[in-house]
Amino acid sequence: VFRGRTQPLSQEALSRAGLRGWSPGRAEPLAGHLHFPQCFQDTVVAWIPCAFLWVVFPFYYLYLKHHKKGYIRMSHLFKAKMVMIGTHASFLSCLQMLAVFLTQLERQKGVQSSGVLLIYWLLSFLSSIVTVNLKIQHGFLEDPFHHIASYTYSTLVLVELVISFFTDQPPFFSKIVSDSNPCPEASASFVSRITYWWFSGLLWKGYQQPLEAEDLWSLMKENSSEEIVSQLEREWKMYCGRSFCHSAVGRARETQVLLEPEDCQSKSLLKVLWSMFGTYFLFGTLSLVICDVFLFSVPKVFSLFLEFMKDQESPNWKGYFYAGLMFFLACLQTLFEQWYMYTCLVIGVRLKTAVTGLVYRKILVMSNAARKATTVGEIVNLVSVDVQKLMDLIIYFNGIWLAPIRIIICFVFLWQLLGPSALTAVAVFFLLLPLNFAITKKRSQFQEEQMQHKDDRAKLTNAIFSDIKVIKLYAWEKAFMEKVLGIRKQELQALKRSQLLFAVSLSSFYSSTFLIALVMFAVYTLVDETHVLDAQKAFVSLTLINILNTAHSFLPFSINALVQAKVSLNRLAAFLSLEELDSDNMNTNLLDSSLIAVTSGATVLCFGRINLSVLEGNLLAVVGQVGAGKSSLLATLLGELQKLEGHVSVKGTVAYVPQQAWIQNASVEDNILFGKEMDDSWYNRVIHACALHPDLETFPAGSRSEIGEKGINISGGQKQRVGLARAVYQKAAIYLLDDPLSAVDAQVGQHIFEQVIGPNGLLKEKTRILVTHTISILPYVDNIVVLVDGEISEMGCYQELLQKNGVFGLARQAIQGEAEGLGPLQPTEEKVNTSIYLDYLKAMGSPVCLYIILLFTCQQTASFCRGYWLSKWADDPVNNGTQKHTELRVGVFGVLGVIQAIGKFGSTAAVLLGGTIASRKLFRQLLENIARSPMMFFEQTSIGNLLNRFSKEMDAIDSVIPDKLKSLLGFLFNLLEIYIVIVLATPIAVVAIVPLTVLYAAFQNFYVATSCQLRRLEAASRSPIYSHISETFQGSGVIRAYKAQQRFISQNDFRVDENQRMCFPGVVADRWLAANLEFLGNSIVLFAALFAVINKKQLTPGIAAFSISYALQVTQNSSVWFCHLTGVSGCQSFMFIMDNAPGIQILQHLQAWPTEGRIEFRNYSLQYRPNLELALKNITITIRGQEKIGIAGRTGAGKSTLAVGLLRLVEAAEGEISIDGINIAHIGLHDLRTKITIIPQDPILFSGSLRMNLDPLNTYCDADIWTALELTQLKNFVLNLPDQLNYECSEQGENLSIGQKQLLCLARALLRKTKILVLDEATASVDVEMDLHIQSMIRTQFKECTVLTIAHRVNTILDCNRILVLENGQIAEFDTPEKLMAQKGLFYRLVEESGLV
């Protein structure tokens, strides 16, 4: 096609150009200039823009018709476009009318920048340039009119093109206009959108100053939970055939639900996800296909360039043209590839939103059987790790079908270059393919094993952080750490094996490039001596082999991603298919005046047949022994248990107070209002009635004081009263109260009954069902139900039941409780320091780092030598049609390739295994620091934040960072090699390489500064999601009782949207960096080619090919690694928190300490935080060894605080505590706490066997454990369990009653039997008969121990040797019970209020 003036186009030349039959034109151009045939210019060149516009027009018209964004008024920009089009409309009037129509239509549809018209004007301008070029060659005087017309037309088109780069004003009636902080993508120009330069504003801002959440844009509606989750929910309902809120079909048996894969469930979920995201994904796939077209175009142009370099007579314009064309095609490839990645990542963000929303909604409708089958840790893994696997599949999925097509095309091109010798490449490829598939399959097995260990670890760490106070009280930190580290060790073993296989897979992939080239070149040159391996054949083949191996490596990755995603999809589908609550368990239709009716009801595992009816306004008390089914009766009325037969009806709104108070991580006020509007008058009445005024006065911010997760910074009594106040504030018709008086003292209990529950309380006109052990209030209730083994034994009023002298007649005791307060929480800050980037490498160790650098240097040196050797081989002179020393060339080429392969495997394995070492060290350090942190840290840090560190961030440290580090080092060493090659080939290239390197460093600097902050914000916004999920999982029964599901769903959606608002800029930042670095890489190719053309006379084809082929290998494998190091930063932020005192501080002469159990408080004072008042003030007392001390006082007196100080959960502000003459401040925390046994107010069990819960340290034999169970009257209960001591307790011990859990905590104390025992209301949750037995057992079994009993039930301490009465943190009275009663002081009044005088 391209000829000079002195060589007219022949038919043979036209045939080769694919233009047979075209006329060469009337005139001949100037020598050495680009020239197209006249006929070709008049038709093909002129009509390419027209064809583009006519082909695109129907699709674009349909798109505009269905995507209206508003209406743009006639702006100056629009008028300028119309004027310019009208000015040159006479040239191609029909086509210009179509452009006018599209311009007007875009304005009416709110399109601010048109990509279609910009491409059209660009094509038109390029077409006009060809015409202008021809006119210049022919001279102006030959045809002045057509010259002027061509110049004018080109100028007008250029102006129109320039105008198209600008954006119009925002449209009217657009949501973007009303948004205070809209995403700039919507108003960016087409060029800015495809190059991601619209993101540069935020990038510059992040570089200049720290980014805050307010700096990020609003979430676009199409990415919001409101838009996505509602659609997914509808689709999922359609496929599953049941509602998310109610189960359509009742189940007649308890379903034992396990998280096992079920293909039918996962297929349904996959169909739902495809129906939502499939179309958008297909558009992304189309971009990838177009990208591949340009990918294979580059080697063809490279081949033409090498042909030009070989032909010394070719004009230089050809070289410049080929260089520019390679750059242009590579840039187009970059644009389409990055658009594909952007599309996939946006789909991933939406998928995460959809799945998280769906999982959260599922939590709110799960049945009790389903709740026992899963844990918070597993659910957190579903919405973090498993969702990430699905997001990965979106990117890799196309590799499954596209990689084989790429491989076939590569083989076809290789056949064209080397003929039948290319078949050897096919043979080598198919020999290596099974190896990669085998490795991928084995790796997937290891990864499944790793995921299982990860689940177990998440489950255990969640349990530890949830109940860290109990673990610290019992000094179990080391034991539980060892359990976590044991699981972690197994997890890392699986990871290590997986990483070694990955190193083998990668080295085989890189070796395959060399093996295919070696075998192919050897066969090609050795089989026939006349086969000459020139630069074109050698280096174009290498370029194709690189593409082949990229596809080859992408295939196992794709299959691996598919396998992992299938496992995650199965897990998600299985969770979403767990049993749901049946709407038939309870209905709201009643035919009589009763508000509650249960007719012949029977529920799974709880009840036999019962009949119960409660009239409106009645107060019904439910009593019975531990495990009789009292709480289960309330659960039945709430529809929480599966009904087997009968009828349960509840009419009116319900308020529920559970036995174990559920408190939100929010202010006291928010906990009480619970979504209702503030009514100051009613609020104050409720606060007074629930006896919360004294507590609020001690809180720093009063009602607005923040309560920690699970109420960690307030006492059990305060939690219960806040929960009760929440119920009272709701003004419901029915109140279900599950023993709310058990956690408060006698005075407060009496106050609450009189002011709230009793005949004259705020709820006197409401229907109330009260589960209680407080016999003293029973004369004031309307009716009493006595439950025995899940059946109603007796029912009637108080006097009737006394006269029957049945089970009820045995109980006449009272129950009290207690509370103390802490202060509000302060959020912790997380910052990214520059030193963090080195911390990960330090964790690897200096020897490993040096070894890695050495191996990368060796393998890159071998790579350089191999390429240089090949260039020399290609430049070997041809004598008589053959090349000499072919065998030597093949042999050395093979040896260098083997050395490079060994170096590649070593360097990759070293990085991945070094990553495992770093991961182990960082995890252990993180765990040890958190486990040894004071309780204040856990009060200030949310569980979601901690779980985020141990799940998402640790997963990045395990897998992502080593892979990114490997890519980074490979990229840097590869880039260094490429620079060396280009500079050696053309030294003048330094002029271009230096500024390109500066630009590269600048882009990295901008990117890292902003991206790390974005990832920090994203991680910070992720933690509240996990905390909210944990909170909702624990309190789902309360949420359903108050019918607050929709409000909590909205809260979750808001948190997810906030997280996605932080996540989306990070996605764009990655694309911005990748696109810009690829453009820089393409520029390196351009300059390498340009300088090769300039130095054509001095360069051999082999060296030129060596230089450019290496430049083509520059990819976007940049230091995205740095951003993922924010995971290390997040974990490192917990490495330097304030530690507790040393855990072990061995004093050799006190191995048997304490021997007596004598406790002395000397001027002891304590405050929870520096800014709070003293909780204990100047306590000075001496407790003799083996003495039994009762501790009494009103709410907030400081009773539990005394135990807190004794166990050093909070260090002394003043004074000291001595045990047997030793200051406990000089004893290691672990040593101290192992010598003291405490039974806390809240009974805590962990997910695991009963034996593990009783003896986590595994120090006692089974006989000792059975003895302890017998003493606590649990032996028969445990013997009747399926696996007895190996019976698995669910999370928080939810499959046992509160009373049973309290008795198990007593059994723990019996096993430890230390010299000092602290009972913090250990019998609050048991019935009166059991309470009497426990008190008797403590007197006998702990006869030789010093016992401190914190009393809420005053009757439990009347037989103590002495009683310590506290008031406002000071000692009010301290003497024997007899003397204190005689004094008629504060203790006397407490006894009197309990009705025991």
TrEMBL record:
Family statement drawn from the similarity comment of this UniProt entry: Belongs to the ABC transporter superfamily. ABCC family. Conjugate transporter (TC 3.A.1.208) subfamily.
Predominant place of localization: membrane
EC numbers, comma separated: 7.6.2.3
GO cellular component: endomembrane system; membrane
Positions of the ABC transmembrane type-1 domain: 282-564, 852-1116
Keywords: ATP-binding, Membrane, Nucleotide-binding, Repeat, Translocase, Transmembrane, Transmembrane helix, Transport
Transmembrane regions: 44-64, 85-105, 117-136, 148-166, 277-299, 319-336, 393-415, 421-439, 500-527, 539-563, 890-914, 978-1003
Pfam short name (any one): ABC_tran
UniProt-annotated location(s): Endomembrane system
MF term (GO), any: ATP hydrolysis activity
Domain spans labelled ABC transporter: 590-814, 1161-1393
Entries under PANTHER family matching the protein: ATP-BINDING CASSETTE SUB-FAMILY C, ATP-BINDING CASSETTE SUB-FAMILY C MEMBER 6
Membrane-topology descriptor: Multi-pass membrane protein
Superkingdom: Eukaryota
CDD domains reported in the protein's UniProt record: ABC_6TM_MRP1_2_3_6_D1_like, ABC_6TM_MRP1_2_3_6_D2_like, ABCC_MRP_domain1, ABCC_MRP_domain2
Organism per entry: Crocodylus porosus
Catalytic activity reported: leukotriene C4(in) + ATP + H2O = leukotriene C4(out) + ADP + phosphate + H(+)
Gene3D superfamilies: ABC transporter type 1, transmembrane domain, P-loop containing nucleotide triphosphate hydrolases
Protein's name according to its UniProt entry: ABC-type glutathione-S-conjugate transporter
